[in-house]
Description:
3-stranded mixed β-sheet, 19% strand, 3 helices, YefM-like fold, alpha+beta, 27% helix
Amino acid sequence: MTMTTVNIHEAKTQLSRLVEQAAKGESFVIAKAGKPLVKVVALDAPAEPRRLGFLAGEIAVPDDFDRMGAAEIATLFGRQR
């Protein structure tokens, strides 16, 4: 889904309609001379999309992950294990 971009003049003349759309979850960008300046979103919209679990099933963490390399690390600090 692509976000709508409007220039400042259009945003001024269509502000009520644009605000209604943003309140319904349809964010938009206001640009000046083609350069995006601000993004308008509903107040209850999440700041950033959550990406928890995006690698679920793609990687496996070994059971000894927290102990991997312990001997080498101990040697680096002058301790023998």
